[in-house]
Amino acid sequence: MEDGRLWQSGVFRSLLAILQWWGFNVAVIIINKWIFQKLDFKFPLSVSCVHFICSSIGAYLVIKVLKLKPLIVVDPEDRWKRIFPMSFVFCINIVLGNVSLRYIPVSFMQTIKSFTPATTVVLQWLVWRKYFDWRIWASLVPIVGGILLTSITELNFNMLGFCAALFGCLATYTKTILAESLLHGYKFDSINTVYYMAPLATMILGAPALLLEGNGVTDWFHSHPSPWAALIIIFSSGVLAFCLNFSIFYVIHSTTAVTFNVAGNLKVAVAVLISWLIFRNPISGLNAVGCGITLVGCTFYGYVRHMLSQQPPGTPRTPRTPRNRMELLSLVNNDKLYDKV
């Protein structure tokens, strides 16, 4: 009886964690698209800066004021030699995501970002000569095929948005590789990662945003019928972006690696559905099929990685997926965390 109650409590906690993670993630994506499309605020660099500023303030409050998370101390020298290069790539990754949202529908952007596993495998094979089991290569076939079908049949195709989303996959891979080499020895959680990287990202992006978009933002403010209400929405997206970072820490500690993988792919489907209900961007039948094939491929890829990680030592296999939550936490910080900030 007691075991049954504990199991039900664990399931409820996992479900609640996944739902709040979905909620914040989808909300950030939808509100960013709303800012670009409905508010006519077509300045992705400025939106990214707002997100970085809000995340910096939020991380400071959580660690220094509320003391909900202990601060991981980093040597001043390492902040410039290790954290700064990571912040630079992190900044590029976020900007590319917002640029893609500026020009292409949410459904198309989310599908293209699902190309990240294929990018990771191919580049690791070409550059690092890493061995990959044939089942890994087989799992990439539906991912690549689904993205090709989605791209060909996309009714609102835009080359700039497509390239931004595609290069965002490359930036995600680069960020992961840099994290493995530059952050060696530091066990960052999501909040500490934001605490150190968001202020540096603000510093990196602040000048380009001011030079490239400053005049446009000023003109928008004077011409918009309700600029202050619009600014509240824009800064609300920054607050939600920080809440997303906090929610990832909670979901990792409440779910298993397999559950996280499946929930992540279902989250993409939820984001696509909600964005279509709100923005009504036209989606052809073949386009929807391509998106579905891609998500199935991503789920299969995660399943294969997990199964190969369970093989006994000495068996030739791919770099394993995490077996427990603490191992998964570092992977999420390096590979998942900032895709939707």
Brief sketch in words of this structure:
The chain has helices spanning 2-37, 44-65, 76-103, 106-113, 116-127, 134-153, 159-182, 190-223, 227-252, 257-279, 285-309, 325-335. The chain is mostly helical.
Round the Cα radius of gyration to an integer and report it.
20 Å
Helix-strand topology string: HHHHHHHHHHHH
Low-confidence stretches: 317-341
Classify the helix fraction into a percent range.
Answer: over 70%
What's the number of helices? 12
Please give the alpha-carbon distance between the first and last residues.
42 Å
Mean pLDDT across the residues is 83
Notable traits:
disordered C terminus, single chain, mainly alpha, globular, 341 residues
Helix-strand layout with pairing:
Blueprint: H1 2-37, H2 44-65, H3 76-103, H4 106-113, H5 116-127, H6 134-153, H7 159-182, H8 190-223, H9 227-252, H10 257-279, H11 285-309, H12 325-335
Helix pairs in contact: 1-9, 1-10, 2-3, 2-8, 2-9, 3-7, 3-8, 4-7, 4-10, 5-7, 6-11, 8-9, 10-11
Description of the molecule:
With 341 residues, the protein is an all-alpha fold. The protein is 79% helix and 0% strand. It has 12 helices and no strands. The protein has helices spanning 2-37, 44-65, 76-103, 106-113, 116-127, 134-153, 159-182, 190-223, 227-252, 257-279, 285-309, 325-335. The chain is globular and about 60 Å long. The termini are far apart. 44% of the residues are buried. Residues 317-341 have low confidence and may be disordered.
